[in-house]
Protein backbone atom coordinates (compact mmCIF):
# COMPACT_ATOMS: atom_id res chain seq x y z
CA UNK A 1 0.00 0.00 0.00
CA UNK A 2 1.22 3.49 -0.84
CA UNK A 3 0.83 5.93 2.05
CA UNK A 4 0.96 9.71 1.66
CA UNK A 5 2.96 11.35 4.43
CA UNK A 6 3.95 14.90 5.22
CA UNK A 7 7.39 14.02 6.56
CA UNK A 8 8.46 11.10 4.33
CA UNK A 9 6.57 11.75 1.08
CA UNK A 10 4.86 8.76 -0.55
CA UNK A 11 6.05 5.54 1.02
CA UNK A 12 5.36 1.87 0.45
CA UNK A 13 3.84 0.39 3.61
CA UNK A 14 3.78 -3.36 3.98
CA UNK A 15 0.59 -4.74 5.55
CA UNK A 16 2.62 -6.52 8.27
CA UNK A 17 3.94 -3.13 9.45
CA UNK A 18 0.49 -1.70 10.12
CA UNK A 19 -0.62 -1.63 13.74
CA UNK A 20 -4.07 -0.87 15.12
CA UNK A 21 -4.78 1.32 18.14
CA UNK A 22 -8.39 0.38 18.89
CA UNK A 23 -8.74 3.33 21.26
CA UNK A 24 -6.36 5.59 19.35
CA UNK A 25 -3.46 7.39 21.00
CA UNK A 26 -4.39 9.88 23.76
CA UNK A 27 -5.09 13.16 22.00
CA UNK A 28 -5.68 11.36 18.69
CA UNK A 29 -8.46 8.94 19.65
CA UNK A 30 -10.02 9.02 16.17
CA UNK A 31 -6.86 7.78 14.43
CA UNK A 32 -6.53 4.01 14.64
CA UNK A 33 -4.19 2.73 11.91
CA UNK A 34 -0.46 3.49 11.95
CA UNK A 35 2.43 2.09 9.99
CA UNK A 36 5.80 1.42 11.58
CA UNK A 37 8.64 2.98 9.60
CA UNK A 38 11.93 1.39 10.54
CA UNK A 39 15.14 3.36 10.65
CA UNK A 40 17.46 2.77 7.68
CA UNK A 41 20.26 2.21 10.20
CA UNK A 42 19.50 -1.22 11.72
CA UNK A 43 21.62 -0.30 14.77
CA UNK A 44 19.48 2.75 15.58
CA UNK A 45 16.89 2.35 18.36
CA UNK A 46 14.71 5.03 16.70
CA UNK A 47 11.79 4.51 14.31
CA UNK A 48 8.50 6.22 13.49
CA UNK A 49 4.82 5.44 13.38
CA UNK A 50 2.87 7.17 10.64
CA UNK A 51 -0.91 7.56 10.70
CA UNK A 52 -2.17 5.74 7.62
CA UNK A 53 -5.16 8.02 7.11
CA UNK A 54 -3.68 11.32 8.27
CA UNK A 55 -0.53 12.30 6.33
CA UNK A 56 0.55 15.01 8.77
CA UNK A 57 0.51 12.77 11.86
CA UNK A 58 3.63 10.81 12.75
CA UNK A 59 5.50 10.11 15.95
CA UNK A 60 9.17 9.43 16.51
CA UNK A 61 9.68 6.37 18.71
CA UNK A 62 12.57 4.77 20.48
CA UNK A 63 13.22 1.39 22.02
CA UNK A 64 13.29 2.56 25.65
CA UNK A 65 15.39 -0.43 26.75
CA UNK A 66 18.18 0.69 24.39
CA UNK A 67 18.39 4.00 26.27
CA UNK A 68 17.39 3.08 29.82
CA UNK A 69 18.62 -0.42 30.49
CA UNK A 70 16.71 -0.79 33.78
CA UNK A 71 13.34 0.37 32.40
CA UNK A 72 10.79 -1.93 33.94
CA UNK A 73 7.02 -2.06 34.34
CA UNK A 74 4.16 -4.50 34.48
CA UNK A 75 1.06 -4.42 32.33
CA UNK A 76 -2.29 -4.89 34.02
CA UNK A 77 -4.32 -8.00 33.26
CA UNK A 78 -6.83 -5.69 31.59
CA UNK A 79 -4.19 -4.34 29.18
CA UNK A 80 -2.79 -7.81 28.50
CA UNK A 81 -6.29 -9.06 27.69
CA UNK A 82 -7.22 -6.03 25.54
CA UNK A 83 -4.09 -6.49 23.41
CA UNK A 84 -4.51 -10.29 23.25
CA UNK A 85 -1.03 -10.89 24.66
CA UNK A 86 -0.36 -14.51 25.50
CA UNK A 87 3.38 -14.35 26.24
CA UNK A 88 6.08 -11.67 26.64
CA UNK A 89 7.78 -12.60 23.36
CA UNK A 90 4.76 -11.14 21.51
CA UNK A 91 5.36 -7.68 22.92
CA UNK A 92 7.26 -4.77 21.41
CA UNK A 93 7.68 -1.66 23.55
CA UNK A 94 8.33 1.86 22.29
CA UNK A 95 8.48 5.30 23.85
CA UNK A 96 7.29 8.41 22.04
CA UNK A 97 10.16 10.84 21.51
CA UNK A 98 9.98 14.62 21.60
CA UNK A 99 12.70 16.26 19.51
CA UNK A 100 12.94 19.96 20.43
CA UNK A 101 14.95 22.59 18.59
CA UNK A 102 17.69 22.13 21.19
CA UNK A 103 18.55 18.49 20.45
CA UNK A 104 20.29 18.16 23.83
CA UNK A 105 16.79 18.23 25.34
CA UNK A 106 15.49 15.26 23.33
CA UNK A 107 13.20 13.25 25.60
CA UNK A 108 11.11 10.11 25.69
CA UNK A 109 7.86 9.33 27.42
CA UNK A 110 8.48 6.45 29.80
CA UNK A 111 5.24 7.09 31.70
CA UNK A 112 3.09 6.02 28.76
CA UNK A 113 4.85 3.46 26.55
CA UNK A 114 3.46 2.22 23.25
CA UNK A 115 2.81 -1.51 23.57
CA UNK A 116 2.43 -3.59 20.41
CA UNK A 117 1.34 -7.20 20.20
CA UNK A 118 3.54 -8.22 17.29
CA UNK A 119 1.36 -11.26 16.54
CA UNK A 120 -2.03 -9.62 16.08
CA UNK A 121 -0.77 -6.02 15.52
CA UNK A 122 -2.94 -4.56 18.26
CA UNK A 123 -1.33 -1.58 19.96
CA UNK A 124 -2.04 0.83 22.77
CA UNK A 125 -0.38 3.66 24.59
CA UNK A 126 -0.56 2.50 28.20
CA UNK A 127 -0.35 5.08 30.99
CA UNK A 128 1.55 3.40 33.81
CA UNK A 129 0.25 3.69 37.37
CA UNK A 130 3.81 4.00 38.67
CA UNK A 131 5.33 7.34 39.70
CA UNK A 132 8.75 5.92 38.81
CA UNK A 133 8.71 7.37 35.28
CA UNK A 134 7.77 10.69 33.70
CA UNK A 135 6.50 11.80 30.33
CA UNK A 136 9.76 13.69 29.76
CA UNK A 137 12.79 11.54 30.42
CA UNK A 138 15.84 13.22 28.89
CA UNK A 139 17.66 10.81 26.60
CA UNK A 140 21.03 12.63 26.60
CA UNK A 141 21.07 12.72 30.42
CA UNK A 142 20.42 8.98 30.52
CA UNK A 143 23.17 8.26 28.00
CA UNK A 144 25.63 10.50 29.90
CA UNK A 145 24.82 8.70 33.16
CA UNK A 146 25.79 5.45 31.42
CA UNK A 147 29.05 6.91 30.17
CA UNK A 148 27.96 6.89 26.52
Global geometry: globular
Order of helix and strand elements from N to C terminus: EEEEEEHHEEEEEH
Mean pLDDT: 94
Q: Write down the CATH class.
A: Mainly Beta
Broad structural category: mainly beta
Quaternary assembly: single chain
Please tell me about this protein's structure.
The protein has 148 residues and is mostly beta strands. The protein has one domain (2-146): Roll (BH3618-like). It has 3 helices and 11 strands. The chain has helices at residues 64-67, 77-83, 139-145, and strands at 2-5, 9-12, 18-21, 33-37, 46-51, 58-62, 91-98, 107-108, 114-117, 122-125, 137-138. Strand 5 (46-51) and strand 6 form a beta hairpin. The longest helix has 7 residues, at 77-83. The chain is globular, with a radius of gyration of 15 Å. It holds the Pfam family FliW.
Give descriptors for this structure:
seven-stranded mixed beta barrel, 148 residues, 12% helix, mainly beta, two-stranded antiparallel sheet, BH3618-like, globular, 3 helices
List the helices and strands and how they pair.
Blueprint: E1 2-5, E2 9-12, E3 18-21, E4 33-37, E5 46-51, E6 58-62, H1 64-67, H2 77-83, E7 91-98, E8 107-108, E9 114-117, E10 122-125, E11 137-138, H3 139-145
Parallel strand pairs: 3-10
Antiparallel strand pairs: 1-2, 3-4, 4-5, 5-6, 6-7, 7-8, 7-9, 8-11, 9-10
What's the short story on this structure?
The protein has 148 residues and is mainly beta. Helix content is 12%, strand content 32%.
Amino acid sequence: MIVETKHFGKIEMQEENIIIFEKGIPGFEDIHRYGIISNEDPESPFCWIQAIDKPELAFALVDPFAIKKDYDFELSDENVSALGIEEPSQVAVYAIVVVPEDISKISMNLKAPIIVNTNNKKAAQIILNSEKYTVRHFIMDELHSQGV
